Amino acid sequence: MAFYDAELIEKILHLKRQKNAVILAHNYQRGEIQDIADFVGDSLELSQNAAKTNAEVIVFCGVHFMAETASLLCPHKIVLLPDINAGCPMADMITVEGLRERKRELPGATVVCYINSSAEVKAESDVCCTSANAVKVIESLDSDEILFVPDQYLGHYISTKTDKRLFLWPGYCPTHVRIQPEDITKLRLEYPQAKVVVHPECIPEVIALADEVLSTGGMCRFVQKTEAKEIIVGTEIGIIHRLKKENPDKKFIPTSERAVCPNMKLITLEKALWSLQDMTPEIKVPEEISVRAKVAVDRMLKIV
Ligand code: SF4
Question: Is the pTM of this model over 0.85?
Answer without folding.
Answer: yes
